[in-house]
Structure to design on (670 residues):
DNA sequence: AGCTGCGTTTACAACGTTGTAGGTAAACGT
DNA sequence: ACGTTTACCTACAACGTTGTAAACGCAGCT
């Protein structure tokens, strides 16, 4: 059995509360006492019991990070960023994956109610408004990702529309006019897909390039296979285009593979730009231009805001937009 | 404040212990009582307090997964596998990353002593023997990855040497004779790099192909950049080879990029095989042959073994080797 | 000498749950 | 009819910590 505060107290010849005070850096302790207790702690190799501390203080020192899929490099990198940011506040991160199955999803959300975490960072992929009400957790909540109008909680958002617009402009500036929008979701308006499509259309409009519905390709998910499949279908259909605005990097990488297979050159015949700036875009062949959505900054701010709420800050929900930037690489280089 | 068992008990008109019994599916409860309690739980929306339960029972329902780096797709996928396996046992997973800094590493290991988790799965990348003693946690421990001779704990191992040998044989069978070993670590014997190099040499020897030290390339880490850099250096040196045994997929993908840039065709001029079977190998251009180290199986067994230990099983440490297989794709296809 | 205030330490009671031991009533065996 | 088992339920204590309130000794002041 591990030693407890009682053991330390007995060895140091003080009360158990004094040990507690030393452990928690209570200021008014005589230096000699503090040292005696420290010595006893070291001798017994005492470590405070988390469960007891949690029970008594009502805090667990952990936050939940709810996200769709760790296999998706974007989310894996985001998880890493969040964990690093959390560590700076002395917090542990519990990662919860949403597999997309309704049943499992509700169970996860219910699990959040078990007070296992002091706060929740919820990275939504496709959250429609009715679901937003479902997120009724008894702890502070920060949303991450797509913008929701008048969300019920703090929200650190990716600038989806603005980023996609910048991506599209990037191609337009390089003289491309027939731009494929890769990764739309049928009928979606508020999710990443809807917003990025919106940014794409805005850029076209601003440049006076007519919008062609034939150039919008719909996909199921945003994995590499989906990008590859969609591109295969487009090529088979005989649609002509000289640029691709992919709604994320995986789609872009999958599509690029198919383009190259089909004998098209990137960027000479088709320029292509992704979205997310995952690590891999730096190593693909050719390297992939993309939008850096400010992922590390997003994680940092999200944890910051969450910690503020956990410390009792009461103010109207804030919406924080992370800065994004265009990363130009080979896939959109000019001859 | 959340409702407690007391509130439920009062509402249902039973003792608090009876509520506890209902919650924990104790068999001897009258059906009518059980239903009354259930109704009260539903009405109050009662959820058991984890911290209290942990304190009383001494179990947290969580296990720690210690691993080097979530940005590395192999480990991200492994983490996902472990989380899924753990979920089947009703366990939560706390992911701890080792950044490679000595200071942080020791702090992490010390953190494990805080009894936050009921067990630890430790995925070692480069664990030398003196470090092995450091892992002195008060909970069951399962090691994952490289084989350590006479390790102090259960160990689910990747068949490093055997896998690398199979990879090498795969190339030899296709008539390749000048095989580059990509990813060795200077002087290492027991880690993944050492074992995979050993497997490579065994295969050569078995086939009667002389070993050429010039064909062994050393790298720092196993990221894509390292593979690219090493390959650039090899090409610049003018070494000739017709096959590459990369010690992991990232190295292979980085190296392949450089080969293609240098005007070499894969697999016609150079066949290349990786190790790990990360998702990406299915989408690279060309698709990458690799060794599937049985990652999902590793995760499943590791959790299984850990749960057994957590349930008090006392027996000598076991060593379990996961089955591996060669996955043949385009990068080693025969003309 | 007595009062006040400060720094330091302590006793005690919680936090919400579960294990133990025991108690009551009905069912059973003789 | 009487002990004995069985099914069901309960009281109480404990897990290891921290918040509260109070006590202690000692200085400085009247």
């Amino acid at each position: 059995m591990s030693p407890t505060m009682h053991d330390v107290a007995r060895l140091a010849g003080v009360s158990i509360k004094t040990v507690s005070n030393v452990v928690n850096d209570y200021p008014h302790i005589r230096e000699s006492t503090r040292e005696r207790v420290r010595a006893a702690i070291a001798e017994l190799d005492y470590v405070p019991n988390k469960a007891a501390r949690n029970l008594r203080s009502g805090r667990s020192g952990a936050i939940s990070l709810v996200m769709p899929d760790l296999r998706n490099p974007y989310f894996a990198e985001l998880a890493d960023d969040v964990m690093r940011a959390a560590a700076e506040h002395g917090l542990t991160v519990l990662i919860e994956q949403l597999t997309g199955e309704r049943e499992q999803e509700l169970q996860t959300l219910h699990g959040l109610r078990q007070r296992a975490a002091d706060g929740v960072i919820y990275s939504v992929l496709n959250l429609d408004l009715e679901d937003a009400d479902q997120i009724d957790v008894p702890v502070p909540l920060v949303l991450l990702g797509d913008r929701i109008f008048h969300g019920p909680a703090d929200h650190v958002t990716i600038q989806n529309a603005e980023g996609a617009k910048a991506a599209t402009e990037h191609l337009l500036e390089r003289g491309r006019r027939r731009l494929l929008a890769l990764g739309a979701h049928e009928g979606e308006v508020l999710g990443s897909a809807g917003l990025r499509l919106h940014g794409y259309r805005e850029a076209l409009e601003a440049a006076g390039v007519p919008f062609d519905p034939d150039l919008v390709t719909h996909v199921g998910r945003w994995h590499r296979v989906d990008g590859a499949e969609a591109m295969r279908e487009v090529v088979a259909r005989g649609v002509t285009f000289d640029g691709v605005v992919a709604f994320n990097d995986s789609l872009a990488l999958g599509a690029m593979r198919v383009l190259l297979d089909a004998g098209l050159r990137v960027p000479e015949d088709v320029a292509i730009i992704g979205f997310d700036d995952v690590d891999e875009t730096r190593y693909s062949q050719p390297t992939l231009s993309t939008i850096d959505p400010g992922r590390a900054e997003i994680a940092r701010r999200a944890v910051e805001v969450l910690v503020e709420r956990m410390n009792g800050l009461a103010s109207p929900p804030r919406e924080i937009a992370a800065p994004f930037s265009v990363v130009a690489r080979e896939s959109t280089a000019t001859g």
About this structure: The domain at 160-292 of chain A is CATH 3.40.50.2300 (Rossmann fold). Chain A touches chain B at residues 2, 47-52, 54-55, 58, 60, 69-71, 73, 76-77, 79-80, 83, 92-95, 97, 113-116, 138, 224-225, 228, 253-254, 257, 260-261, 279-280, 282-285 (CB under 8 Å). Chain A has a mean pLDDT of 89. Chain A has three domains: 5-48, 62-156+295-322, 160-292.
